[in-house]
């Protein structure tokens, strides 16, 4: 998987394979990135659909059908799909090829309005406790997803996104160079005499090396037996 970003145009190299014949095909997909007009929706809900694969929820017609079903339990008409993710990308296992089992899909839906009482009750602590016991969660509304979508209510996630504060812009200091101007240092640095430092750096190691050589020569030549 390779990608490159140039401005608002994103190029994705997609490699796909046929599950039955194992034939592969590569295609370069160009995506134009446009920011959402209203920004990120403040209220987001993620549903786990157990009877669908990810490619079945990618068409716009199927997403519109899912949004209509979600509007029945959310009680909002401004819903839109934010993300569609396969359960295999969340650590799920590949289903057995029997009885037409599906992989499962996580569908994240966003809205500008608050969650309904039905969704809040489905994610309440009492509902989570019932799910831990293997029982059905609490839901105070009719499941409008059935029979087209099998939603696993125990995996429902509600998220309220709060707008992040805008970071302050850069503060220009007094040393910014004006346009078409010459750089003037803020203070003049007096010239320094570097010769003493150079002599100290060079002569001190040489003097130490000479003393060590004299000491080593004295020990080796003048301290031998019979001399």
Q: How would the global form be characterised?
A: elongated
**Major β-sheet, in short?**
4 strands, antiparallel
Query: Approximately what portion of the residues adopt beta-strand conformation?
Result: 15-25%
Radius of gyration (CA) equals 36 Å
Can you give the helix content as a percent range?
10-25%
Query: What is the straight-line distance between the termini?
Result: 81 Å
Secondary structure tally, helices: 4
Stretches where pLDDT is under 50 for at least 5 consecutive residues are: 1-6
Overall structural class, as computed from helix and strand content, comes to alpha+beta
Give the SSE order as H and E letters. EEEEHEEHHEH
Mean pLDDT across all amino acids:
83
Counted beta strands: 7
How are strands sequenced across the largest beta sheet?
A: 5-6-4-7
Protein name: SGCA protein
Keywords: Membrane, Transmembrane, Transmembrane helix
Organism: Pluvianellus socialis (Magellanic plover)
Structure description:
It is elongated, with a radius of gyration of 36 Å. It has helices at 60-74, 117-122, 125-132, 195-221, and strands at 3-6, 9-17, 24-32, 43-49, 80-86, 105-111, 157-160. A 4-stranded antiparallel β-sheet has the order 5-6-4-7, covered by helices on one side. Strands 1-2-3 form a 3-stranded antiparallel β-sheet, with no helix packed on it. Helix content is 25%, strand content 21%. A hairpin with a 2-residue loop joins strand 1 and strand 2 (9-17). The N and C termini lie far apart (81 Å). It has a domain at 38-160. With 227 residues, the protein is α+β, with helices and mostly antiparallel strands.
């Amino acid at each position: 998987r390779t990608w490159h970003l140039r401005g608002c145009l994103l190029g994705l190299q997609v490699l796909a394979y046929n599950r039955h014949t194992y034939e592969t095909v590569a295609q370069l997909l160009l995506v134009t990135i446009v920011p959402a007009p209203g920004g990120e929706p403040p209220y987001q809900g993620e549903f786990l659909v157990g009877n669908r694969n990810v490619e079945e929820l990618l068409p716009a017609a199927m997403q519109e059908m899912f949004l209509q079903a979600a509007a029945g339990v959310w009680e909002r008409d401004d819903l839109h799909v934010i993300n569609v993710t396969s359960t295999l990308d969340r650590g799920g296992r590949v289903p057995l090829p029997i009885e037409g089992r599906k992989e499962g899909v996580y569908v994240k839906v966003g809205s500008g309005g608050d969650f309904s009482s039905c969704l809040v009750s489905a994610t309440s602590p009492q509902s989570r406790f019932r799910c831990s016991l293997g029982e059905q969660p609490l839901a105070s509304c009719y499941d409008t997803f059935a029979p087209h979508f099998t939603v696993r209510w125990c995996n429902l996630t509600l998220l309220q996104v709060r707008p992040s504060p805008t970071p302050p812009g850069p503060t220009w200091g007094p040393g910014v160079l004006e346009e078409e101007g010459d750089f003037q240092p803020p203070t003049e640095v007096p010239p320094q005499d570097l010769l003493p430092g150079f002599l100290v750096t060079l002569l001190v190691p040489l003097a130490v090396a000479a003393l060590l050589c004299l000491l080593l020569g004295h020990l080796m030549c003048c301290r031998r037996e019979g001399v």
